[in-house]
Each structure stands twice: as structure tokens, then as C-alpha cells.
Amino acid sequence: MQRLNVELGARSYPIIIGSGFLGAPQQLLPYIHGRQVCIVTNETVAPLYLAKLIEALQGFNKLDVVELPDGEAFKNLDTLNRIFDVLLEKRHNRTTTLIALGGGVVGDMCGFAAACYQRGVNFIQVPTTLLALVDSSVGGKTGVNHPLGKNMIGAFHQPRLVLADTDTLNTLPARELSAGLAEVIKYGLICDKPFFYWIEENLQRLLNREPEVLAYAIERCCRNKADVVASDEREGGRRAILNFGHTFGHAIEAVQGYGNWLHGEAVAAGMVMALELSRLRGDIDNDLVERLRQMLQIAGLSQRAPVGMSAASFLQSMQIDKKVLDGKLRLILLQALGEAVIVDDTPREMIMDALRNCGAE
Amino acid sequence: MQRLNVELGARSYPIIIGSGFLGAPQQLLPYIHGRQVCIVTNETVAPLYLAKLIEALQGFNKLDVVELPDGEAFKNLDTLNRIFDVLLEKRHNRTTTLIALGGGVVGDMCGFAAACYQRGVNFIQVPTTLLALVDSSVGGKTGVNHPLGKNMIGAFHQPRLVLADTDTLNTLPARELSAGLAEVIKYGLICDKPFFYWIEENLQRLLNREPEVLAYAIERCCRNKADVVASDEREGGRRAILNFGHTFGHAIEAVQGYGNWLHGEAVAAGMVMALELSRLRGDIDNDLVERLRQMLQIAGLSQRAPVGMSAASFLQSMQIDKKVLDGKLRLILLQALGEAVIVDDTPREMIMDALRNCGAE
Lengths: 361, 361
Known about the structure:
The structure is a homodimer. Chain A has 13 helices and 13 strands. By secondary structure, chain A is of the alpha/beta class.
């Protein structure tokens, strides 16, 4: 069992990583302050893990479950309202604790519901996908999508605890495991060069789901993310580097329709684009771009723009992304392996070239 | 012109009270940091004041307006989404400033939109009703209603500035002026005995809208509220006294349907109920209850439960109110004039008696 703390003053919280946690109340109970609990999960995860989690929560006088439909397409205000419906119908009060059991979509919606219900209640993350384990469960970003933009409606709301049980990865579809690996590789690229080399060497073992290799990668990603978040909780500056590949990736998701490309799949292609753009700026050489492409290929991830998507439609979509400040397009690029930078002044034509070099029309 | 500060550390902000502000940019501009502004108002207020406010905002390269339907019945997630629609269609980014021009409903929804849009943007309150001037524009509570409860979905999000222009009260319907006076009287009851006597003496002048009398009352209410909020920003304890009369009032609003009784009208009747209950507990004498009834009558406000509403339906509705902690009904009562207390242990029968003494069936 590994334990690390996300240091955010009064909002600090632990991430506990290990296996066999789900049915074991001793990890969970110290972080539930009232006598009411509501588990938010989805129709895919519930049959796998809900019974075990409920087992750990015997003895609460109010234990309710909200089962959401599965997928990014349902990450919206209407679905969010279903959580509020249950909380109010079952009369949960301000002392309730919401537990997110699922991937990033469940975590983001449950967290946002916890941020808004009666202006803020406790919540706990129990992530069940690699992507959620290494990314969305750390950092306090919560929210839903709007038809005109991803994660445009949300709040910063820190969990009280993140309980990362690597057992849940055994049932994860291969496609989602790969999508999660895109975010794992991201940490190597933006801030942890030795980890990038480690991933390169251990990629096949990660794909084989060797527990100790997975646990190591998860812990290292969480530590990297926790460090970045602790330095900039509300994304005034440095925290933006975590969005490496995401501005391009969000454009892919938005144009293809949420859910057709998994988030991590879109980020994978987006990272190649960001790397190619960094190369065009003269900051990194082609060898690194090729190494990334090679890793993504082994992981079964796309390294190119979706078929038929034009460079112009990328730019169109990106201009509504949150990373646009007063009309300037803010991009996260690399100045070297392991060193991300925030760049405001990339010429439009250079962005178009990078996109075309990555298969955009 | 009067100016007072709500002291909340990094989230401190000024309340500027005076007249002739709306068309005068010098009060407003220092608090708008970016180059984008979106005014949120409603169909009733817009014809009266929107042009003047827009005049003060010449020179912004992006100035959009969202005009909402008027009334508590529209204070919900669907209406909120109309604000997000405009912000995204018009490509407002994180540096935008939202300005709430209107009463409490507009302020609560605009503030909540500002809290959630891209996880939080600036906002400014320009309240145009007495209720909003003395109550909802101070304290950072924002949110929307749910069919099962008022203000159940929301956030704490402090404005950057509250600009209180007493000129706006000249066009306020008499019914809304009276509803606002209920909250003015509340401050006397809960924390400011000399102010209670002052209101008793000056009630007719307030109803006559004498500008200097109104300005004095607004400033004193805001100061009282600012003191309470500064001591307890997120309502862990003392801040709850601001809800005096509100638990009963919310029950009236919920059972009668939002919008049929104005918020202040429901709070007026709710305050009589809270006072009657305080009397039954032996803490205050009947003289004070009668004096409040007398003041409310002069102000044209109801001092009784709605016709046909039963004591049982009050309790039914109150048990879902946010003030319920782990099954105990938390009420704000008076232990003396000007001294509110939070009470958890009132017997159910005593509450029923107080409600019946106030006309509930």
C-alpha cells in the first residue's frame, strides 16, 4: 500500500494506492463524517464493484446509489440533475458524503454535484479506470460538458480522499487501458524525463497489467500531478502544463462528437501534434516525436488526426477552448523532454503546418 | 456616497451605495479586469436600466447581454444554461466579467453562472430591488432552485464589487419594496436592537421611499450582514442566523409554488412564526410579537400562514430544508430582541402550536 498527500492547506487530502480495498471499510470510514452516503456510479461499473463497496459501508443509516448511463455523451447538466434528484428525494443533507465509483466521467460529475449540492458537501473518489487513477481523480477539477465545449461548466472541489484500488484495472477494457496510458506518457513528457524512459522500457508490462508495474506508474503519475496542483491549485499558471496535448485533443473530441474518441485517445493524438509543433519551433528534434509515435503505436493509440478532419476545423474548435486568453491561443509545448512551457505566440501558420504534418487535411 | 468593505481576506470586496451610478463608468471600470463583459438581466429590468449600464461600458470589445424571464419560477438549471449558451456562443473566456443587473433571482443565477463558467470567472452585482440590495447581493451565496427545494444547487462565489444605486428603487413595485422591508426588519430582530426601534419609527418614510432614509437602512443592513458573513463565510455556524424566518418562509414558498409569494413576503410570515415559537419557549414576550405584526401590517405584509396550509405540511416541507442536520430540525429563534440563537431541540409539538397560532391549519 502506498500513500501520498496532495498538499493544499486546509483542503489537503491523501491518495491511497493498493489492492483489495473495495470491500475493506477501514480505508474509507475515517473520511466519511456524517451518517449519510450516496454512491454515484454508472451502469458498466455497478455490476462489477458496487456490491463490494456497499459491503464496506454497512451501518450507515442512509446509503443511496445513483447509477448513471455510461459515457462522455452523458456528461451534461441533465445527467447531473439526476444526482440532485436522488439526493433531494432521499433527503440527504449538508453532512452527506458522495462517493464517485467509476472513471473520469463519473468522478467529474459526482465531484461537481458535491461542489454544488447545498453549496458543497464531502466527496470521495474511487477511480476504476487507469485514466481516472492517474488523472481526473487528482486535482479537484470537476464539471460537465456543454454542446459548445468540453468541461465548460464546473468547479474546483477537492475530494476528501482518493482510494485507488488497482484490482479494478483487471476488468478494464484494453481500449481504456491504452487510453489511460496516454496520460501516463504525458507525465514523462511534461515533467519527468526519467519516467519517460521507464515507460518506454516497461510499456509491454503495463499493457500486460502486471500489478506492481501498474502500481508504480500510478503512484508516480499521482505524485507528479499532486506536485503541480499543489503549486497552482486554481490553474493561474504552471498547472496548465497538465493540459499538454489536451487543446488539440479537445478539438478532436468536440468535432468527432464526445464519446467517439475516448479522451485519452484524443490526448494521444493531441500530444503528437503538440510535439510536432514544438519541433517546428526548433525546441526538440524529430527523434523524440518518432519515439512518442512508436510508443503510442505499441499501445494501440492513434498518432494522427481523425480521417477527414481539417486543420481549419481544429483551429475553429480550439478558439473556444478555455486555454484562450483574450483572443490569443495559449498552447502547452515542450522546450525539451520533461520540460513543458506555456506559449502564447505561436504563429497560426505554424500550427496549421503541425496539424497537417499529423494528418489533418 | 457610502462605501463599506466585506472583509474576506483575498476575496474581500467593496459595497458602494449611492445614486446616479448606473451610467457612470468610474465606479465600475476598476473592477473589470479583462476586455469581455456579459450583462445578465431580466425582461422587466432591461427596459429600465440596461441602456444606462451599457453606456457606462462603452469601449469593451465584447459586450453581450443575456435577458432572462422574470421570476423565481425560472430560477433553475434550464434558465442557467441560457447564460452558458450565450457565453459560449459569443466565445467569452476565463477573463470575462459577468454583471448581474436585477433582483435576487438574477443575482443568484448570474453569480452561480460566474462560479461555474470555466470553473469560475469574475462577477459584479448591480442590485435593483430592495431585497437584493440588503440581502442577496452580500455574502456570496449563489444558486438555483430544484423542484424539491429552494437554493439546493449552488456555490459560494463572492462578487468583485456590489454597486448599489438607490435610484433603481424609484421604479420598484410597492409589493417588492414591502417584501424587501421584511429583510430590513430581520436585521433589527436578529442582531441590531437599536435599528429595530429606528425602523419602527421610520417605517412610513421608508415606504415613501425617502432617499436618505433608504440609503441609511441599506447601508446598515449591508454592514450587519457583512459582519456576520465575515465571521463565517461558509455558514458553519453564526451565519445561519441570517436565515431567521427563512425555514418557515421556504416552506411557504415551496408549498405555494415559487413565485406566488415573494421571497420577502414568505420571510415576513416566517419571522412571525419564529417569533411566536421563541415566545412559546419563554424567551421573548408577546409584546414583541405584536410589535412585529404591527410593523408588517403597516408595510402591507402578511403575518400569517397562507390560507389552507396545514402545520403538518410546513413540517413536511421543512424537513428537506438545508437547515436540517442529521435528522434534527435546526431553527433560528430569538433569545431576546437583537439576539438570534440557533436551536436544535425544539419539540415538534411546540413547532406545531406556533404554526397554528399563526394561522396554519
